[in-house]
Amino acid sequence: MPQSHWFLCVCRDGRGPALMPVTDTFTMKDGVSGREAAIIRAAGRDENARAWRIVHSMIGPRILVHEFVAGGGLAGARVPASLARQGSAMLAALLADLAATGHHELVTTADSRFPLRVPSGVQVVTLPPSGAARLDDLIASVDGVWLVAPETGRCLERLAARVERQGRALLGSGAAAIRRASDKAALPVLLARHSVAHPKTRVVGPGSDWRAAARALGYPLVVKPARGAGCRGVRLARDERELSTALTPGLDGGDGRRGTEGGRLLLQRYVPGVAASVTLVADGRRAAVLAVNAQWVRPGPRAFSYRGGTTPLDHPLACQAADAAARAVEACPGLRGLVGVDLVLTPSTAIVIEINPRLTMAYIGLRASLDENVAALALRACAGVLPAAGRARRVVSFTAAGRIVTATAR
Fold this sequence. Notes:
Layout: E1 5-9, E2 18-21, H1 34-58, E3 62-67, H2 81-101, E4 105-110, E5 123-126, H3 132-140, E6 144-148, H4 155-165, E7 169-170, H5 175-182, H6 187-192, E8 201-204, H7 210-217, E9 221-225, E10 235-237, H8 240-247, E11 265-269, E12 274-283, E13 287-298, E14 305-311, H9 318-330, E15 336-345, E16 350-356, H10 362-369, H11 374-382, E17 394-399, E18 404-409
Parallel strand pairs: 1-13, 3-4, 3-6, 4-5, 6-7
Antiparallel strand pairs: 1-2, 8-11, 9-10, 9-11, 12-13, 12-15, 13-14, 14-17, 15-16, 17-18
Helix pairs in contact: 4-5
């Protein structure tokens, strides 16, 4: 049955959300007999076993999980407390879900400053400062590597390239796909080719006439690094004075803390609306949407701040957001495993802001919302097996620190 991608449609009658293929329509029929139901369940078990055989044949049993921020990538360096909490939360959740599959031998890296609770049987290796050689040894000792790292300074891209050089399976996107997806300066052209809506954007650097660029776009504007992650280095400028202040640190040849490259920054027309994200799994060509999420983001002249979110998002444009996110991911060939797409939902349309080629904080809420093991779905996607239709069973709200604050059954 031909299909391009799956999308999640949030229903208002208590049944949804559900994943449905864009090119096909499914009709649920009443009156399924007990024998027919048993056959369907058996088919599901057979399909599950087949999927895991594919995963093992392509990935192997031993997996390294390396979360860069709280997992030793910054050992010996200063780590903002908020980033450490987020990294620790994502790492603990991912390890718990991978261990729950019962199919893999797990190894993870750690930073001695950040306590980590892991399931029984997980090998924990504490990385020392300047622990690159130790990490390379760990990569060489496993079959597959799951990376969680920011795109800032090409961090995630370079880690992926290290894994590829050693010939190990990446349980996520490859370096080339990460480079394409995380280049926010090139993203407008990439998305336009696939008719995906994106804010008007200009690139500015040392010597640029940023005042003219700002006038062409119109205020208010968002200032952000050409490559970055989360809200770090992202500011709102409502007039020329605020824009001058926002640009000063980045147009002096580059500010590593804000992720600029050669002093390049982006000016982007601010889009008012509902901040949202879409979580997907991808197999390198196709994408399946797992959830549309609300993001709690507060804009400001000093910095945008991320506070957490809710999943799934009940919104009239949820289906449109899911479709736009899937088309954005498929516009960037090579994306695999978990991918996040940030959007703004205006009263009339869904605007894609950026693509995050990795696990994001929405994972914390999603794993509590779905009955399915999200890490298992991502592993299967890496092996070319996208998920069938699924449903969110709970509406979950979570903080930026990874704490679940509400979980209500649907």
